[in-house]
UniProtKB/TrEMBL annotation:
GO terms for cellular component: nucleus. Catalyzes the formation of 3-(3-amino-3-carboxypropyl)uridine (acp3U) at position 20 in the D-loop of several cytoplasmic tRNAs (acp3U(20)). Keywords: Nucleus, S-adenosyl-L-methionine, Transferase, tRNA processing. InterPro entries: DTW, tRNA_Mod/Golgi_Maint. Its EC number is 2.5.1.25. It comes from the Eukaryota. It comes from Amphibalanus amphitrite. One of its GO terms (biological process) is tRNA modification. Belongs to the TDD superfamily. DTWD1 family. Residues 37-184 form the DTW domain. This is tRNA-uridine aminocarboxypropyltransferase 1. GO terms for molecular function: tRNA-uridine aminocarboxypropyltransferase activity. It is found in: Nucleus. It catalyses: a uridine in tRNA + S-adenosyl-L-methionine = a 3-[(3S)-3-amino-3-carboxypropyl]uridine in tRNA + S-methyl-5'-thioadenosine + H(+).
Length: 184
């Protein structure tokens, strides 16, 4: 997998305007659990009322299940971004809840330098589901979970269709304004 470049990381991506996020002046209650949240509730996986229907709704080419390390809190995990932005296609689990999968239709995506390429995966498996597992405590050079999901579906799309039109770029919608060095 390639990594985002540190300089102007989002310059060439087709990400929706962050204006709706910038207009928020403070926290508001989660529509489900009523706890005070900024953009979304990392436990209920829904945006705050002010953002309901106003943030991108991304559809993915595969069902993605993300298995989180139990020691990683939801509040710090960018895996939550995937569940909030692509709620139809992303399930977030916490180990040891790993769900059950058909090995013939599932690929395991585990960010690792020795991993095969996505093109290899899509050539050998009729991937309908992608299971993403990862470890905590990795150095900063490793991809954030949301980046790993993004690059996986992007490379899958490119390998299946030989082209990519930016349709998954909004997976990085929430990440974008959270990066201090990012110019919107
Ligand atoms: Zn909540």
């Amino acid at each position: 997998m390639t990594s985002l470049q540190p300089a102007e990381p989002f310059k060439h991506l087709n990400i929706s305007s962050a204006e709706v996020l910038e207009r928020l002046t403070g926290r508001s209650p989660c529509p489900k659990c009523h706890k005070s949240r900024m953009y979304f509730c990392y436990n209920c996986l829904v945006p705050v009322d002010a953002l309901t229907g106003k943030i991108p709704h991304v559809r993915l080419p595969v069902e993605v299940e993300i298995v989180k390390h139990p020691g990683e809190t939801n509040g710090k995990s960018t895996a939550v971004h995937a569940a909030v932005l692509a709620p139809d296609d992303v399930t977030l689990r916490t180990y040891p809840d790993v769900g059950s999968y058909d090995p013939d239709e599932t690929v395991l995506v585990f960010p690792d330098s020795s991993a095969g390429s996505v093109a290899d995966v899509s050539a050998t498996a009729p991937a309908r589901d992608a299971l993403l597992a990862y470890q905590r405590g990795k150095p900063r050079t490793h991809l954030a979970t949301i980046e790993a999901v993004y690059y996986f579906v992007r490379e899958l799309q490119e390998s299946r269709h030989d082209t990519y039109g930016g349709e998954f770029d909004d997976l990085l919608f929430i990440l974008r304004p959270l990066l201090p060095d990012c110019v919107p």
